[in-house]
Please model this.
Amino acid sequence: MSYLKHNSWGRTRCPKNLSGSQGGEVAVVLVSDLTDATEGYATQNQRYLHVLVTDKNVGGGLTVTVYGYSHAFQKWFPLTIPAKTDAIEVTAPNTSTAEGSQNASHREHIVWEILGVDRVAFVGTAADVRCYAACSTF
Model:
């Protein structure tokens, strides 16, 4: 007798972490010249990309730019949001706030509608940034 085994490809109500484990960080690459179609993370044809960026050392001024890839175009491109820039800037208000605290003033959460984006990658300017990403349909 065969059983239907559901997989994660398709519709998901709750955001699914792109790193493969809940609470896991995604890799932030230090170069913005993305050329390989296998770099970054597969979006699994989801509709929304949820990104949380934090500063590890509360130094402020760090940026992460989120890039999308389309198999139809065979190109990487920065994702944009109306009324925002294509880079997510994390700025800490002072050095007394640690990343693990509940003070969210040095964190930024963005949600993109990514219809038609097959892969995403995260390009940063420093190693002191943490990036978390997930995708969902609803």
Notes: The first strand starts at residue 16 and ends at 17.
